């Protein structure tokens, strides 16, 4: 679970660095998890004992003023969703508890703090996971302009490759059962392999579509075409972005696609 916290905390604290806020959910997205009978079994045994993904006390209850769950209702009172024509049981919307560092007073002295006009994002689209979450917040929530580099002229480019959520694997899932004192329903593979499974989906604010399928949130505002100059020197690329964004004097030509 520590690895999961690190990923989520990285995203939340990066958002907090640029747009500090004490408001609930200011750095978090709603999420849900599958709630099959075997998951409900491990969740019941894990509550307030394991601090793992299936311990409801690690999540906040949207119906109780965003306070941590005081019971296992998150998993025991599941609801049905139909996704891609398939109906399954899921938890109600929730979010992992934020573990934010205190707001540093020095942030108020920076020109970019809470000022989207002084921030720009430059991405080649490989940004993913925690990077995708804070890029989404900066661009789609706080309206920071994003520039994506590469691609084909006139085509929109994505800011990130895959958004956050939580992907686990067979080994970790088996460990959840062991930590809860249960026999895992997942047998080990007879050979060495790695199988990743999405276990927690996230949702953009006000959206009913899981983030990874919410394609309208992906495109960058601008595209920067590669040139023989900027492909060899990132400073040249940043100068082109700065020229376009803030109309500064520069010897660098702006790309036609801005």
TrEMBL record:
* Top-level taxon in the UniProt lineage: Eukaryota
InterPro entries xrefs: S41A_metabolite_peptidase (IPR052766)
What protein does this entry describe?
Uncharacterized protein
């Amino acid at each position: 679970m520590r690895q999961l916290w690190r990923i989520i905390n990285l995203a939340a604290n990066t958002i907090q660095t640029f747009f500090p806020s004490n408001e609930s959910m200011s750095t978090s997205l709603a999420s849900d998890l599958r709630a099959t009978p075997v998951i409900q079994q491990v969740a019941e045994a894990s509550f307030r004992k394991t601090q793992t993904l299936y311990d409801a006390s690690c999540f906040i209850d949207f119906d109780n003023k965003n306070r941590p769950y005081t019971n296992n209702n998150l998993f025991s009172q599941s609801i049905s969703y139909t996704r891609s024509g398939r109906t399954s049981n899921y938890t109600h919307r929730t979010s992992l508890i934020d573990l934010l560092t205190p707001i540093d007073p020095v942030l108020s002295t920076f020109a970019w703090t809470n000022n989207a006009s002084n921030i720009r994002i430059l991405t080649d689209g490989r940004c993913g996971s925690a990077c995708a979450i804070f890029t989404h917040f900066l661009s789609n929530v706080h309206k920071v302009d994003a520039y994506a580099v590469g691609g084909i002229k006139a085509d929109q480019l994505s800011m990130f490759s895959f958004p956050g959520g939580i992907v686990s694997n067979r080994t970790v899932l088996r460990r959840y059962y062991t930590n809860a004192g249960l026999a895992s329903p997942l047998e080990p593979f007879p050979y060495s392999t790695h199988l990743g499974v999405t276990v927690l989906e996230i949702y953009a604010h006000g959206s009913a579509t899981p983030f990874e399928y919410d394609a309208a949130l992906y495109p960058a505002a601008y595209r920067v075409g590669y040139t023989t100059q900027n492909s060899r020197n990132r400073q040249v690329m940043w100068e082109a972005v700065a020229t376009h964004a803030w109309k500064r004097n520069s010897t660098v030509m702006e790309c036609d696609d801005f």
